[in-house]
User: Fold this.
Amino acid sequence: MFSGIVEEFATVVAIEKEQENVHFTLTCSFVDELKIDQSVAHNGVCLTVVKIFDGKYVVTAMKETLLKSNLGLLKVGDKVNVERSMMMNGRLDGHIVQGHVDQTAVCVAKIDQQGSYTFRFKYLFDKEMAKKGYMTVDKGSVTVNGVSLTVCNSQDDCFEVNIIPYTYDNTNFHTIEVGTKVNLEFDIIGKYIARIQSFNL
Assistant:
């Protein structure tokens, strides 16, 4: 479980395809603190550390993960938002994030607000999935590339988020432009509420 408060971004230093899997080698400041089998969110995708060596670590993404996220688009040198799993004795600064990406979205607008940025993201809307909680609501929470954010101007197939300078500089939001594909995880609480309501209890 994660909180959506990104620690930093890691840099992709190698990519190796093995059958339908892809092994990503990355480096970041806390590599020496990692352990094999530890879960780390990468652009919001929970992946398991499988190897650590020479200040680098390796995680593996399988076909399903590559199809539902933007990890398959990564190139050597790209920056990836990373967060280690949440400690249960700490504060929940963001919201409950599982690291299970629901789908991708595309940036359709990036507006400089003279001190912050507004990003608009558009995603494939499915009415049946929306009934199950796969949607956004104004002032609700959404995870974009692993970053816990508050939704603004929620519509059926798009929403906006406002990014402060610290988040812009210290996550890969500063690399997002119109046309960039990002990972979305909708709020798990909304999904549970929608599921319960479907039973008319």
Observations:
- Helices lie at 63-68, 127-131, 165-170, 188-197.
